[in-house]
Amino acid sequence: MTLPRIVPVRAFADNYIWVIRDHRHAAVVDPGDASPILDYLRHEKLQLAAILNTHHHRDHVGGNEMLLREFPVPVYGPATEAIPTVTHPLRECAGRESDEGVVYLREFTLSFRVLDIPGHTAGHIAYYGGNMLFCGDTLFACGCGRLFEGTPGQMVASLQKLADLPKDTEVYCGHEYTLNNIRFARTVEPGNQELLEREKAVEALAKQHVPTLPSTIGLEKATNPFLRCGEPEVISSASAKMNKPLNDPVSVFAALRDWKNRF
Ligand code: ZN
Ligand code: FE
After folding, report:
1. Is 55 a catalytic residue?
2. Catalytic residue (choose from 55, 56, 116, 124)
3. Positive or negative, the Cα torsion across 239, 243, 247, 249?
4. Is residue 3's pLDDT more than 90?
5. Domain 5-173 superfamily per CATH
6. Do residues 202 and 178 make contact, with C-beta atoms less than 8 angstroms apart?
7. Which of 25, 56, 124, 175 is catalytic?
8. Which residues contact 107 (CB under 8 A, 6 or more apart)?
9. What's the gap in Å between 172 CA and the centre of ligand 2?
10. Distance between CA atoms of 232 and 249, rounded to whole angstroms?
11. Conformation bin of residue 105: beta by default, left when phi > 0, alpha when psi is -120 to 50
C-alpha cells in the first residue's frame, strides 16, 4: 500500500482542483471544470474513485456532472447546500458516531473528518485527515474567503476551528491568491518578520509559476492577518483604518475583511 500523493490541477484563472491519487485511482476535491481533470486522468491512466465538494459555488462543483458521465462515483458534499449531484451529504458530527461526519476513501485507506466552517457560504465544509486539510474558499494562504452568506462572527469561529488543528497540517486551498494576499498582509502587519520571509519565498515561486500551496496551519497562524486578529499590530492597523479603537477579534476581523475587499 503506497501513500496517496496530492497533485494540483489548475482550472479557470486561479482555481486548484486537488487530486488525491495513487498509481491507479484518483479522488478530486472541488472539480469546478471537468475537462482538465479528464485530461489528467487519461494522461495518467487513472480511474476516478470519488468527488469531494466543499461548497456549492460553480467554480467548485461545475465539473461534477461531466465527470459522473464517465465515472459514476460517490459525490461527497455539504448536507445543507443545494448541489444536485451529491450522493453522500455530510455535516460535522462532533462527538457523535455518524456516517455523515466521516468520508472513508477505501482506495487510499484514507479517512477525513468533516468540519462545518460557515462564512464564505452558509454550509461550507472542510475535509481533515491524513495530516491534510481541504478547506475550499474558507482559509487561503495568507487570507480568507469573502463573506457571501455568513457573518464575521461565523467566519472567525470557522477560522479558529481550522487554526486549532495541529501546526504541521498541510492546507490545500481552492485558489492561488497567495501573492496578492501577502501584499495585503504586509500592509496590515509591516513588522511581521516571518511574513516578510514568506513574501520573498512566494515571490520566487510565483516567478516560476509554481503553486504556493500547500501551506501549513503553523505558517498561517504566523503570517495570516485573518488568524491574527488578537495581535497588537493587527488591532492597531485595523483600528487606524476604521478611525476608531477596535478591541474584540470579531470587529478586527470585520474591519480587515472590509479593507481587503477594497484593497
Ligand atoms: Zn467559493
Ligand atoms: Fe472559489
Report:
1. yes
2. 55
3. negative
4. no
5. Ribonuclease Z/Hydroxyacylglutathione hydrolase-like (3.60.15.10)
6. yes
7. 175
8. 22, 24, 25, 27, 49, 50
9. 13
10. 11
11. beta
CA of 154 to the centre of ligand 2 (A): 18
Distance 244 CA to ligand 1 centre (A): 31
- Give the β-pairing of 47-52 and 75-78: parallel
Strand runs (DSSP E) across 63-169, as ranges? 75-78, 88-90, 102-105, 110-116, 125-129, 132-134, 139-140, 143-144
Distance 26 CA to ligand 2 centre (A): 21
Query: Which residue from 56, 38, 58 is spatially nearest to 47, judged by alpha carbons?
Result: 38
Distance of CA 34 to the CA centre of its chain: 19
Query: Residue ranges per domain, the chain?
Result: 5-173, 182-261
Ligand 1: centre distance to CA 147 (Å): 10
- In the set 25, 56, 57, 124, the catalytic residue is 57
* Strand pairing category for 143-144 and 15-21: unpaired
Task: Give the pLDDT score at 1.
Answer: 53
**Residue type present at position 243:** N
Active-site annotation holder among 30, 33, 59, 116: 59
Ligand nearest to the CA of 124: 1
Q: Which helix (H) or strand (E) holds 163?
A: helix 152-163
Mean pLDDT of 4-29: 98
**pLDDT band at residue 252 under the 50/70/90 scheme:** very high
Beta bridge partners of 51: 28, 75
The question of whether 88 is a catalytic residue gets the answer no
Task: Report whether pLDDT(251) > 60.
Answer: yes
Query: Which residue bears the cell 494562504?
Result: 141
Task: State the chain's mean pLDDT as an integer.
Answer: 97
Cα separation, 263 vs 255, in Å, equals: 12
